[in-house]
Design goal:
Layout: H1 6-21, H2 31-34, E1 42-50, H3 60-73, E2 76-80, H4 89-92, H5 97-106, E3 110-112, H6 122-130, E4 136-137, E5 141-143, E6 156-161, E7 164-172, E8 186-188, H7 191-197, H8 201-204, E9 207-213, H9 216-225, E10 231-233, E11 245-247, E12 250-253, E13 261-270, E14 276-285, H10 294-311, E15 314-318, H11 333-345, E16 350-354, E17 365-368, H12 369-375, E18 382-388, H13 389-401, E19 410-413, E20 415-421, E21 427-434, E22 437-438, E23 444-450, H14 451-454, E24 465-468, H15 474-489, E25 500-504
Parallel strand pairs: 1-2, 2-3, 3-4, 7-9, 9-10, 10-12, 16-23, 20-25
Antiparallel strand pairs: 1-13, 5-8, 6-7, 11-12, 13-14, 15-17, 16-19, 18-23, 18-24, 20-21, 21-22
Helix pairs in contact: 3-5, 3-10, 5-10, 11-15
């Protein structure tokens, strides 16, 4: 029972107690009859939670031991909000399979489907889901094309512990930010209508949890509209919450990214009233834990060792490093190297990459294969598109104004651009040049982009003729170019070169 039934339940309890006062002592109801599931009238549940792991496996041995010890001490569930993959070549090169193996051993009970979980393609999504000993949950995802290899995920799962039913409802970002090919044949409903569709779970469960990959802001809106959930576990937001955020009586928690923390929430259910309260919520830094599951950690080390030689190969050297500092205001060294590599590998006049795809920078010294995978962990392919100059102007305007951000979003090679703004920073116009000449709106240019962008990621529309939808792996282009520059120039070094500028007027 949920909060809205509390008053009714209390009335019923009072009536029962009044009746009991008039009943002979030897005919009074036994505790087992008045307390479903037995116990002292209170049920305690520990909810362990992680999210946005991005393939980080170094702490999984500690994670597994912590989960094991908590489960051994009482009723507990371990839940994850999705995005298990994409961020570590140890996991990404074998397309996520090591992470599934490790989470099986770590005792994961359920996972919400995250947007990055689609990034390896639909066949691998299906394979990873099939190999999981835990359910992948998404109540708002529907497979509408039976020809795709992905099977319909479960919308929810109900765990029964000591007579108490704990429901976990999954929600996925709608639509997921991933390659369009990864979600072809799938539809994603809005969150509110989905929750209403499963309103019956209020009555069918004693504790109801929303396991979501929709971000903290959407989680707040969900709690504002529905007071059905005893807990919302949030994912797709980068920062740890630092404590529960309570909205409309509903606690919302999240751990942040990259497996730095495991969250621990204690819920207490009063069996007599059906009321559930938040007793405790905290974040446990995994690095501070002392105990490790040796079998799980041995697996981690074996997976790392398997790719060690390849990842540690030195492919170049940089004296100054390739910084990403200031990428939302200007061109940056890592962005200049990245886009130059794309243009060089694929004989393009222009190359772009999005700032959101740049996930690291390279320190001074030797450049390894692993360094390249760290700055581009998504295994994007390169697309070649023939675009008019007018289409380029449209892309640049969209990149700056996207979602009202008013900031640089595209690093570039071959094309220089200046964003002209008003005094408040709002977009007024853009000035584009190629080889020092203004871009001709009617001319067609050969453009290289990551396939995430080329297929509509982040709402981008690279309008034109796709001449090669898979020209090669993006990381391969950067590895090749690092070798080339080191051989020809002795090092891979860039500065902010003025490829991108912002000029305020007024």
């Amino acid at each position: 029972m949920k909060r809205k039934w509390l008053i009714v339940t209390l009335v019923c309890v009072l009536l029962v107690l009044a009746a009991a006062a008039c009943t002979p002592k030897d005919e009074a109801a036994s505790p087992s009859e008045t307390n479903e599931g037995g116990g002292e009238g209170r049920f305690t549940l520990t909810v362990l939670h992680t999210g946005n792991m991005h393939g980080n496996v170094d702490q999984v041995g500690k994670l597994a031991q912590y989960v094991k010890s908590v489960k051994a001490s009482g009723h507990a569930l371990y839940l994850d909000t999705g995005d298990l993959f994409k961020g570590n070549p140890v996991v990404d090169i074998p397309h996520g399979e090591p992470m599934i193996d490790l989470m099986n051993d770590a005792g994961l009970d359920a996972m919400a489907v995250g947007n990055l979980d689609f990034d390896y393609g639909q066949e691998q999504f299906a394979r990873n889901m099939e190999n999981s000993r835990f359910p992948w949950l998404s109540a708002n995802m529907e497979v509408v094309d039976s020809s795709v290899p992905i099977k319909q995920p479960q919308p929810y799962v109900v765990f029964e512990m000591d007579g108490v039913k704990v429901g976990v409802l999954g929600l996925t970002q709608a639509p997921p930010e991933t390659r369009r090919s990864g979600i072809a044949g799938l539809e994603f409903r809005d969150y509110a209508s989905t929750v209403e569709r499963y309103a019956s779970l209020r009555e069918e469960t004693d504790i109801l949890i929303a396991l979501t990959h929709i971000g903290m802001d959407e989680g707040r809106r969900l709690a504002e509209r529905f007071d059905w959930f005893d807990l919302i576990v949030s994912g797709d937001s980068g920062d740890p919450s630092g404590g529960p955020v309570v909205v409309n009586g509903t606690p919302i928690v999240q751990t942040g990214a990259d497996l730095q923390y495991i969250g621990r929430v204690t819920l207490e259910l009063d069996r007599a009233t059906g009321e559930t309260r938040l007793a405790d919520s905290r974040l446990q830094p995994l690095a501070e834990l002392k105990e490790t599951d040796p079998a799980v950690q041995d697996k981690v080390e074996a997976y790392k060792k398997e790719l060690e030689d390849m990842l540690n190969e030195v492919i170049g050297r940089t004296v100054n490093g390739l910084s990403a500092e200031g990428l939302y205001e200007k061109d940056v060294p890592v962005g200049n190297f990245w886009t130059d590599a794309m243009r060089d590998a694929h004989d393009a006049e222009i190359a772009f990459t999005n700032n959101g795809g740049i996930r690291n920078q390279i320190a001074p010294g030797d450049i390894t294969v692993n360094d390249i995978y760290k700055i581009e962990p998504f295994q994007n392919r390169v697309m070649i598109v023939e675009m008019t100059g007018q289409a380029l102007y449209d892309v640049i305007e969209y990149s700056y104004t996207r979602e009202g951000r008013n900031r640089i979003d595209l690093q570039t090679s071959g094309l220089h651009y200046t964003i002209v703004t008003d005094g408040s920073g709002a977009f007024k116009s853009a000035q584009l040049t190629v080889e020092g000449q203004p871009v001709d709106p009617a001319r067609v240019y050969r453009v290289a982009v990551p396939d995430f962008l080329g297929t509509g990621g982040d709402g981008y529309r690279f309008e034109g003729k796709v001449v090669d939808e898979d020209a090669g792996v993006l990381t391969d282009a950067m590895i090749q170019y690092a070798r080339k520059l080191t051989q020809e120039k002795g090092s891979v070094d860039y500065a902010s070169e003025g490829r991108i500028r912002i000029r305020k007027e007024g």
